[in-house]
Design brief:
The structure holds 2 protein chains of 2 kinds. Chain A folds into 2 domains: 177 residues, no CATH class; 212 residues, no CATH class. Helices cover 56% and strands 17% of the residues of chain A. Chain A has 13 helices and 12 strands. By secondary structure, chain B is an alpha/beta fold. In chain B, a hairpin with a 2-residue loop joins strand 5 and strand 6. In chain B, helix 3 runs parallel beside helix 5. Chain B is globular. The chains are: A alpha+beta, B alpha/beta. Chain B: InterPro entries: AAA+_ATPase, ABC_transporter-like_ATP-bd, ABC_transpr_LolD-like, P-loop_NTPase. Chain B: Pfam families: ABC_tran. Chain B: GO terms for molecular function: ATP binding; ATP hydrolysis activity; transmembrane transporter activity. Chain B: One of its GO terms (cellular component) is plasma membrane.
């Protein structure tokens, strides 16, 4: 027997009171864990996804929506812009490079993005199997798309109209998978990438309602692998991702686009910090709730220890009578508080990670999927430290009471 | 000489000072401390156990002055050398019978591999791993005696061990205490108002509130 075992026995002797306190503390700490993980990973992911994109130009509307739809591929696009206008802009001397995006279709909830090979280079993607598209209707799958849909190089599928699941299929043309990308942990993982022309052709098909003879013609269509596609007829794209040539561009270019064209320019950095500011209210409310829970559990532990001391006055006196020192009793009570909060902390961290895991499992295609629920952060060590501090604080008064118990009085009162 | 007291006096706050008769006890010897309820016999036991400090006088155990020890040293000395049987068993409820005994070993930093033997002597061999909550009153009292013996003390102090027992069991408990004390060569002091005990132990002192 030792002090540790004795404290443990006393804790497990009142399992409900102990369990309730551990659970309360764990819930508070779980919320903090989830917030920590989300904040760390989401912000990191968001920054990673937006790297190399200085400005997004699209149809007028909400700038935040524009960023969410074309950088993170979560929200709906604001509309289309004319290819000619996009071309004019890309020739501006402040623009270093541009990548066009054409959105509008999906396959089982995963977005089909028409773009060029620059997009792959932007995210420094590598191929797991196969290679990039070279003809219309050839697509490259992000790692997650391939894994969740069970598709591999050489497979075929029909896209559906709209960017979310459940709309009608484009039944005229099958997409052919030419390559699957290696997992990168960023937005590309959950995209189906193809050429702009593929997206155009899918939609022209629909409008023209032409038969099979047309598809042979499609095969011969040239596709643009780099830069903006050229076309005789007026065409549209959804957005243009822009990289600045110099810092001056950051000041001049957005103003130029917003004031002089029918298009809208939005900066991912600016919009994201605005979004986090908006979310900040919710996050601080959750944090507040977590601290209230932790506070209550601290008080709960204090009351539990203090009440148990009333029942245990004799026990404490007996311990002294069989040779325990005051200091050992003090240690014993502290040990109980610390053990309690330690288990609370471990449980809280596990609940937090488990909860995140659950959310991610529920959320098949969203931005949450790129979050790793079982990554452990250094900050979580602080959660343990923090919990132990609650334990020490809560056992301060009970431990001191135990320290001061007069044995003679207790034992002879009976 | 195991225990020797001289001119002990103690004053409870707001009460008259109690003067105690001098005690002299050899190892293996038994002594009764008799007195009416409230006469101060438990106070004397507390003084002898080092649970309270006398206002006057001194207690010598094997030549060591008990009242000079303080704090942790006193606690350790008590744990190692004095076994106390309280009026009520006061066992540690979360622990099993054997764990209660081992606890005594832990706090007094002593090792004793005869714990099972002690339990057997007291007829508790079957209950070794039972929770103390499952014990009958008589068993609980025997466990508390076993705990007092666990550190093989030099002095055993028992506070009213027979107050709630019938004649037959009184005899048994007194015999048990005497036998066990003899076995480990300890002095035995029983504090009681129970006149029946006098029939078994002849040497006694009386505490009277003056």
């Amino acid at each position: 027997m030792n002090l540790f075992k004795l404290s443990w026995k006393y804790l497990t002797f009142r399992p409900f009171s102990t369990g309730l306190n551990v659970l309360l503390l764990a819930l508070g700490l779980a919320i903090i864990t989830v917030l920590l993980l989300m904040q760390d990973q989401l912000e990191k992911k968001m920054n990673e996804d937006a790297e190399g994109i200085d400005l997004v130009v699209g149809a007028k509307g909400s700038p935040l929506q524009l960023i969410l739809s074309s950088v993170y591929h979560i929200d709906f696009p604001t509309g289309n812009i004319s290819l000619d206008e996009a071309k004019n802009l890309s020739r501006n001397r402040l623009v270093k490079s541009t990548i066009p995006l054409a959105l509008g279709d999906n396959y089982q909830g995963f977005r089909i993005v028409g773009t060029n090979l620059d997009y792959l280079e932007l995210y420094k993607t590598e191929f797991e199997t196969g290679q990039a598209w070279a003809k219309p209707f050839e697509v490259v799958l992000g790692a997650e798309v391939a894994q969740k849909l069970g598709l591999k190089t050489g497979d075929q599928f029909l896209g559906s109209h709209g960017i979310s699941e459940g709309s009608h299929d484009h039944d005229a043309n099958y997409f052919v998978v030419t390559g699957v990308l290696k997992p990168k942990g960023n937005v590309v993982d959950r995209l189906i990438l193809t050429s702009i022309e593929s997206v155009w052709l899918t939609h022209e098909e629909e409008e023209e309602e032409e038969g099979a003879e047309h598809s042979e013609e499609l095969e011969s269509t040239e596709i643009t692998l780099h830069g903006l596609p050229s076309s005789d007829s007026p065409k549209e794209i959804t957005t243009l991702l822009i990289q600045y040539r110099n810092p001056m561009a950051a000041i001049q270019l957005p103003r130029l686009v917003n004031a002089r064209t029918n298009m809208q320019a939005a900066s991912p950095t600016f919009e994201m910090s605005r979004l986090f500011e908006l979310l900040g209210v919710g996050i601080s409310m959750l944090k507040g709730l977590a601290f209230v829970l932790i506070g209550i559990s601290g008080i709960g532990i204090f009351i539990a220890l203090y009440n148990s001391l009333k029942d245990r006055k004799y026990d404490l006196a007996i311990l002294r009578a069989i040779g325990a020192s005051r200091f050992q009793l003090l240690q014993m009570i502290f040990l109980e508080g610390i053990l309690l909060t330690f288990f609370g902390a471990i449980l809280g961290i596990l609940i937090g990670h488990g909860f995140l895991d659950l959310i991610i499992r529920q959320n098949q295609t969203g931005v949450m999927t790129s979050i790793q629920p079982w990554i452990f952060l250094k900050a979580e060590l602080w959660i343990v430290v923090y919990a132990l501090m609650v334990g020490v604080l809560a056992s301060l008064i009970p431990a001191f009471t135990a320290y001061q118990t007069s044995i003679a009085k207790q034992l002879t009162k009976a | 000489m195991l225990l020797k007291t001289s001119d002990l006096a103690f004053t409870h706050p707001g009460q008259k000072t109690i003067q105690f008769e001098n005690i002299q006890l050899e190892s293996g010897e038994s002594l009764l401390i008799l007195g009416k309820s409230g006469s101060g016999k438990t106070t004397l036991l507390n003084l002898l156990a080092g649970l309270a400090k006398p206002d006057k006088g001194e207690i010598l155990m094997e030549g060591l002055e008990l009242s000079k020890l303080t704090g942790q040293k006193l606690d350790l000395f008590r744990g190692q050398n004095i076994g106390i049987v309280f009026q009520k068993p006061h066992l540690l409820a979360p622990l099993s019978v054997i764990e209660n005994l081992k606890m005594a070993n832990f706090f007094s930093k002593k090792r004793n591999n005869k714990l099972s033997q002690i339990l057997e002597d007291l007829g508790l061999a079957q209950k070794k791993n039972a929770s103390v909550l499952t014990l009958s009153e008589g068993e609980a009292q025997r466990v508390s005696i076993a705990r007092a013996l666990a550190n093989e003390p030099k002095l055993i102090l028992a506070d009213e061990p027979t107050s709630s027992l019938d004649d037959e069991n009184t005899l048994k408990v007194i015999k048990l205490l005497q036998d066990q004390a003899k076995k480990i060569g300890a002095g035995l002091i029983i504090v009681t108002h129970d006149q029946r005990v006098k029939n078994h132990i002849s040497k006694f002192i009386e505490v009277k509130a003056s």
